[in-house]
């Protein structure tokens, strides 16, 4: 089996599963309880929070645990919008955001907020000059992803940070789900970023756990009310085992991030060189300014799901761009926003490399691609 769908989810590290199991078995008290078992759980919770904060260069009191990226994005957009609605009702997101941002923004537009989409270039990067034109006196939030989940384009977070530097009333949110452990943290967690979202299962942690970064002093309305957990901002009993496993996964990921990213970059470059030799292949991901782990292409006139299943018959697992929309059969929204014709966008498939991807797997992938290309020539 060759797994090349790591942007959808990653395989948990063995050490992470061991941590999850041990904490579940030994530290199973409720961290809000006053007795000894609760104190044990609370210590593990806060130690994990501290470790995560240190790994991303932030403070422990700026880390808040969630169930994952979708909740985190929903929380930041809705929480900031309702917290600041007395000061304005205008929100800007990019045209290539993840559905958990796009659909949340659409919902907010039905609640009286005004949402504008910042356009992207033909290569898939947010046009900062066009974004600047969208800013109004009533703008309260800008939300831009760090790495696009469909083609891997690294967004100009530093340039947008500079644009917003003299606009302190605008909150700046970054969806960092596809960035953590893949590109340097300082490139998207700039001093100007107020909120950022992360998900454990994207960096070899367990599913159902994530966290947001909220800069100290910034306000956000809670989505969940009840027991007062997470500084009264996210009420629900914390998943202590999952959070401890997340801290372990992040530590292991960050320790090896430079080495893994360099290896992925080399593999991706060799893939691009090989793909360019196919006359009927559409290459949607570039090399400069793209994350090392994502590569998206298509075979002319062959729908992406056909290619996915053709590879699956050889036990090679890839994806039709975003896992959150692939089963719905939607064309890649990022490609449409880039101006790619719908028929071409429907051919798109995404390879996303993992920490265990090696040259032999890429060689096998290219061997099967050659077979699929030959089999589909008559259809094309």
What structural keywords apply?
globular; 13 helices; three-stranded antiparallel beta sheet; 380 residues; 12 strands; 14% strand; alpha/beta; seven-stranded mixed beta sheet
Describe this structure in words.
A seven-stranded mixed β-sheet has the order 2-8-7-6-5-3-4, with helices on both faces. The protein has a three-stranded antiparallel β-sheet with strand order 9-10-12. Helices cover 41% and strands 14% of the residues. The mean pLDDT is 95. The chain has 380 residues and is of the alpha/beta class.
Shape, principal axes of CA atoms: globular
SSE succession: EHHEHEHEHEHEEEHHEEHEHHHEH
Question: Care to count the β-strands?
Answer: 12
Structural class: alpha/beta
Give the low-pLDDT segments: none
What integer value in Å does the Rg equal? 21 Å
How do the strands of the widest beta sheet line up side by side?
2-8-7-6-5-3-4
Residue fraction in strands:
5-15%
* Biggest sheet overview: 7 strands, mixed
Distance, first to last CA: 28 Å
| Helix content estimate | 40-55%
Mean pLDDT comes to 95
Family: Belongs to the class-V pyridoxal-phosphate-dependent aminotransferase family. NifS/IscS subfamily.
InterPro entries: Aminotrans_V_dom, Aminotrans_V_PyrdxlP_BS, Cysteine_dSase, PyrdxlP-dep_Trfase, PyrdxlP-dep_Trfase_major, PyrdxlP-dep_Trfase_small
Organism: Streptococcus rupicaprae
Cofactor: pyridoxal 5'-phosphate
């Amino acid at each position: 089996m060759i797994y090349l769908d790591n942007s959808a989810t990653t395989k948990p590290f063995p050490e992470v599963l061991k941590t999850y199991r041990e904490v579940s078995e030994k530290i199973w008290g409720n961290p809000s309880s006053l007795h000894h078992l609760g104190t044990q759980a609370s210590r593990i919770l806060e130690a994990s929070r501290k470790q995560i904060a240190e790994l991303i260069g932030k403070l422990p009191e700026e880390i808040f645990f969630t169930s994952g990226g979708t909740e985190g994005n929903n929380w930041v957009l809705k929480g900031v919008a309702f917290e600041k609605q007395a000061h304005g009702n205008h929100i800007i997101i990019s045209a290539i955001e993840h559905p958990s941002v796009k659909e949340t923004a659409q919902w907010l537009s039905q609640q009286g907020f005004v949402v504008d989409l910042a356009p992207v270039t033909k290569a898939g990067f947010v046009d900062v000059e066009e974004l600047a034109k969208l800013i109004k006196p009533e703008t309260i939030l800008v939300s831009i992803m760090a790495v696009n989940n469909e083609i891997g384009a690294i967004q100009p977070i530093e340039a947008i940070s500079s644009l917003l530097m003299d606009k302190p009333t605008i909150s700046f949110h970054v969806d960092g789900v596809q960035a953590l452990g893949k590109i340097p943290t300082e490139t998207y967690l700039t001093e100007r970023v107020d909120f950022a979202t992360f998900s454990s299962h994207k960096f070899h942690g367990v599913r159902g756990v994530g966290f947001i970064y909220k800069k100290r002093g910034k306000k956000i309305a809670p989505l969940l009310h009840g027991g007062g957990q997470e500084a009264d901002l996210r009420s629900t009993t914390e998943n202590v085992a999952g959070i401890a496993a997340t801290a372990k996964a992040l530590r292991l990921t960050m320790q090896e991030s430079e080495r893994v990213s360099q290896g992925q970059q080399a593999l991706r470059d060799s893939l691009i060189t090989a793909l360019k030799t196919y006359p009927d292949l559409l290459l949607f991901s570039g090399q400069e300014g793209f994350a090392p782990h994502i590569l998206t292409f298509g075979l002319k006139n062959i729908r992406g799901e056909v290619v996915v299943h053709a590879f699956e018959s050889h036990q090679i697992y890839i994806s039709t761009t975003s896992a959150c929309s692939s089963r719905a059969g939607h064309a890649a929204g990022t490609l449409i926003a880039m101006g790619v014709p719908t028929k071409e966008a429907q051919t798109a498939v995404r390879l996303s490399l993992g920490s265990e991807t090696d040259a032999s797997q890429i060689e096998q992938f290219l061997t099967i691609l050659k077979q699929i290309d030959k089999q589909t020539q008559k259809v094309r």
